[in-house]
Design goal:
Alpha-Beta Plaits, single chain, 2 helices, 120 residues
Length: 120
Amino acid sequence: MSEQFWLVVQYPLKSAKGNGRDCWLRDKVMEYLEKSLADANLGYVDGFDMGKCMADPKQYALNLFCVVTDEERSIALIKRVLRESRLDYTRVKMATRPYGTEGNYTLKYAYKKGVSSFLL
């Protein structure tokens, strides 16, 4: 079996529950990523959480969790899907860590230069 990774796609939110647009975004991104990752045989969407960030309770985020087999190809695919589908590509961060391990995620992509940290 090939090595697997957790890949988190994170969007910032303005409140713990988000608004109607945030819920729509969650559903659409999950739908598009499930199909795209499965079609490319790269992995699957494992779920999401939405609300306060554990590291900073004054910040809110939508986190979509994926299990993937190839970090680089999966990140490139997700970036392309979000951009082509107009799913708020300009607000997203992505981070990974080896599957089955505990610890911090490593930031792999951020919507703007200068962002160097990733926290759940």
